[in-house]
Write a structure and sequence with these properties.
about 290 residues; six-stranded antiparallel β-sheet; 8 strands
């Protein structure tokens, strides 16, 4: 209201000055005309000064609104793009993954645990100190009949159990709480996973297992999570030379001794367990490239 009053007052002043100017011009008084012009100029500045804050405010509001809209537009577009990318990634992962293996794994990969951070079978600290004590890797080229012979492969005939065990093996390899030990610490993984809803991904305290106790634990945890009674009570603290006895007694495993399958992952499946009773066991975690021809 005050601003509008000032504007009106300025208009009145301009009108009065114009009249004075005309009168002065008519009388031939150049001095009066000059004074009137000066007064009119000052009045114009006063009117402009009164109007400027409102105009500036409108401009600032307009700029702020534009900037806000641009920012919001950028964020919205970014979110939409992110959503599109996320969906694309999920779709791509779904298309590339075999239906019965962990996404992102190449054919014929394995879960392996073999040495602690000291490069030894016993000693060291619980947990994975190197990131490689429990790992997913390609089937090693030196696991051959002439250099590293396996005695047999144990294949789980229950697909649901087999694939859940694979999932848990991948989760265990990804969790640096799980390390390797074949001595006093070899059963600490089983102790810890019981308190973690039988899910290796949720194990929060450093622990260890050896090759046999880790694989047996994955299968026992999978059975407990799925309610498959035949495997829920297996002894997952046994050594490698007991793998056949422990698992074959469940009635859900078959023993494979085909030489063509023993030393190559190509025709074997995710969940298959390779065993050399005198030294080592591993578990395949993705189907071999020719698994359909097994």
């Amino acid at each position: 209201m005050q601003k509008h009053f000032k504007v009106k007052r300025s208009i009145y002043v301009l009108t009065a000055l114009s009249v004075m100017f005309l009168l002065s011009a008519g009388c031939g008084d150049k001095a009066a005309a000059g004074a009137a012009e000066t007064a009119r100029s000052e009045a114009g500045k006063d009117a402009a000064a009164v109007m400027e804050p409102e105009n500036a405010g409108d401009a600032a509001s307009s700029e702020a609104g534009t900037a806000g809209n641009e920012t919001a537009g950028t964020n919205t577009t970014g979110s939409a793009a992110a959503g599109t990318d996320h969906s694309a990634e999920e779709q791509k992962g779904s298309e590339n993954a075999a239906p019965d293996t962990e996404p992102g794994l190449k054919p014929g990969m394995i879960f392996n645990t073999q040495k602690n951070e000291l490069g030894q079978l016993v000693g060291g600290q619980p947990g994975d100190q190197t990131g490689k004590e429990a790992r997913i890797e390609a089937y090693p080229s030196y696991y051959r009949a002439d250099s590293y012979p396996w005695d047999y492969i144990l294949h789980c005939t229950n697909d649901e159990l087999r694939l859940e065990a694979v999932r848990l093996a991948c989760a265990g390899a990804a969790n640096d709480m799980l390390g390797y030990d074949s001595g006093d610490l070899k059963n600490t993984f089983w102790e810890e996973v019981q308190a973690a809803d039988y899910d290796p991904a949720l194990v929060a305290n450093p622990c260890s297992a050896n090759c046999a106790t880790s694989v047996l634990t994955f299968y026992r945890c999978a059975a407990i999570r799925l309610g498959i009674r035949e495997v829920m009570e297996i002894d997952c603290t046994e050594n490698v030379w007991m793998m056949e006895e422990v698992l074959m007694e469940t009635g859900l495993f078959e023993k494979i001794t085909d030489e063509e399958r023993l030393h190559s992952p190509d025709r074997n499946m995710a969940g298959d367990i390779y065993t050399a009773e005198s030294r080592h066991t591993i578990m395949q975690v993705s189907d071999g490239k020719d698994a359909e021809n097994r």
